[in-house]
From TrEMBL:
Residues 1-16 have a biased composition (Pro residues). Residues 1-87, 486-508 are annotated as: Disordered. This is MFS transporter. It comes from the Bacteria. It comes from Streptomyces pactum. Pfam families: MFS_3. It is found in: Cell membrane. The keyword Membrane applies. The chain crosses the membrane at residues 103-127, 133-154, 166-183, 189-208, 256-274, 312-331, 343-363, 375-393, 399-421, 433-454, 460-480. Gene3D superfamilies: MFS general substrate transporter like domains. It is a multi-pass membrane protein. Keywords: Cell membrane, Membrane, Transmembrane, Transmembrane helix, Transport.
């Protein structure tokens, strides 16, 4: 749960502005009350002050919120213990200084651990009931394939309904699915169907949460770092969740482990309900594309894909990961070709998550927005290059190093997030981020399937190396398209922040 903001915040100078415009973060304190006679509003739950309420540009009053924004006039909007003062906090510390983000972080940590633990438990449960390796493996595959359905048919929900309501309802639906799985005697077909339903809900939840980060943290660097934290949690949950799930299954039955998942989803729903602000829907029902959710979602996806800039950035999000997953997808057969035991396989499986977490933390902490933007396209183009090392059939240590380097390529997404937010209209932000999430998971699933099919015909090390070649070629083509669609650099002037990411969108 978020803590109340500092009681005596100091004014915050206007921070870096992203290319989307000068929007600052939304006010996000947790429980601040009214301040009599000051014309000041503090935090998320604040009532109006007894005096005249003043907003930026309207007069000499102040509004204390989560961001730092000044506009024409003498009014100033300042952060109430949320967005930090320039120079006081930087990097990830600044993100965690925002109380609402801490609530989102806690909810994501709970739900991700629950998801990973449930995947193991459900796989074991299905295998014990059916005795079928295929059905057991489907519990993992069905966690990816329905993303495309949910992400395209339900994407508009992220913009049509209030974000907090969407997030809480998604958590409750997933808790309900897990609760039915816990019931003894539930048939395998029902278990797999519930797995599909949860997976179809996931992109709507992910897209809505990503769009909400823009409301909580603003459209500048804090949004980029906030998204980075979410990815770090996801990667870390894979490492911790599989270990915790395995330990739990040694002492309790799979259905008992699934009951833990129910608790994590309910806990996430409670934290989001009481730890985040209620915000209105971005788009009115039926606005622009008709009144039906499915129809408007499809129309919204078509409109986004018709925009050349948005389409290029979506491809930059989808294409490199499609090839990056090849060595991870084939880790088990590759370990077998090297004669490695379970310990060796385990090391190969953690290689990419370790590389991803390390690169996210280092790039997010040590580099500023301009430097991260300059790295985006080169890193994206070369993300699959380490896979070429598999051509020499490396032993365990070199293969592990290649996997860590491959995972480190995820760092290019820090710059991509800022560009994508700038390219998408605010009223379509939730739809766009849901589509991005759905496409990412779908292309990764497709990449895994294609790598597995190719490994039926050719040696595993050659398949991984081939994926590296194809990924590099495709990555270079996508990068070229992103360069062609980049907007011109902002003209130099005193009003443009020197660290603006927009100035480096065409840089290499």
């Amino acid at each position: 749960m978020p803590t109340p903001p500092d009681p005596a915040p100091s004014p915050i100078p206007a921070g870096p502005r992203g290319p989307a415009g000068p929007r600052g973060p939304a006010a996000s304190g947790a429980s601040a009350g009214p301040e009599a006679g000051t014309g000041t509003e503090t935090g998320a739950g604040a009532g109006k002050a007894a005096g005249t309420e003043a907003r930026a540009g309207s007069g000499p009053g102040t509004e204390a919120g989560a961001g730092a924004e000044t506009s024409a006039g003498t009014g100033t909007e300042t952060g109430a213990g949320t967005a930090p003062a320039s120079g006081a906090r930087s990097g990830y510390r600044a993100v965690f200084a925002v109380p609402e983000f801490r609530a989102v972080f806690a909810a994501h940590l709970m739900s991700m651990l629950g998801v990973v633990v449930s995947e193991i438990a459900l796989s074991v449960l299905v295998y014990r009931i059916s005795g079928s390796p295929l059905l057991s493996a489907l519990t993992f595959a069905l966690g990816l394939l329905p993303y495309l359905v949910g992400g395209t048919l339900l994407a508009q929900a992220a913009d049509r309904f209030p974000a907090r309501r969407v997030l809480v309802v998604c958590d409750l639906l997933c808790a309900g699915c897990a609760a039915v799985m816990v019931v003894p005697g539930t048939p395998v077909a029902v278990l797999l169907g519930l797995r599909c339903l949860s997976a179809a809900i996931a992109p709507v939840f992910g897209g809505t949460r990503a769009a909400t980060l823009g409301d909580i943290l603003g459209e500048g660097d804090l949004f980029v770092l906030g998204r980075s934290v979410i990815r770090i949690v996801s990667q870390g949950a894979q490492l911790a969740g599989f270990a915790v799930g395995g330990l739990l299954l040694t002492v309790v039955a799979p259905r008992a482990v699934l009951a833990v998942t129910v608790a994590t989803f309910l806990g996430s729903a409670l934290v989001l309900r009481f730890g985040t602000r209620r915000r209105p829907a971005r788009a009115a029902a039926g606005a622009g594309h008709g009144g039906r959710l499915v129809g408007s979602s499809l129309a919204g996806a078509r409109a986004l894909l018709a925009d050349r800039r948005v389409r290029a950035l979506l491809l930059l999000s989808w294409v490199p990961p499609m090839f990056v997953v090849a060595p991870e997808a084939l880790a088990t057969p590759y370990a077998d070709t090297l004669g490695l035991g379970p310990a060796g396989l385990g090391l190969l499986m953690i290689g990419m998550p370790v590389g991803a977490i390390t690169s996210e933390v280092l790039v997010g902490s040590l580099l500023g927005p301009a430097a991260r933007a300059r790295l985006t396209l080169p890193v994206a183009a070369l993300a699959t290059l380490p896979a070429l090392g598999y051509a020499v059939r490396p032993s365990l240590a070199p293969a592990l190093l290649l996997l860590v380097l491959t995972g480190a390529g995820i760092a290019y997404t820090l710059g991509l997030d800022q560009w994508f937010l700038a390219a998408v209209p605010e009223q379509a932000r939730g739809t766009a981020l849901t589509l991005m999430t759905a496409g990412l998971m779908t292309t990764q699933g497709l990449g895994m399937a294609l790598a597995g099919a190719a490994a039926e015909l050719w040696p595993v090390h050659r398949v991984v190396a081939g994926a590296g070649v194809l990924g590099t070629v495709c990555g270079l083509l996508v990068v070229a398209e992103v360069r062609r669609t980049a907007p011109p650099p902002a003209p130099a002037g005193p009003s443009n922040n020197r660290d603006s990411t927009a100035r480096h969108m065409t840089g290499g």
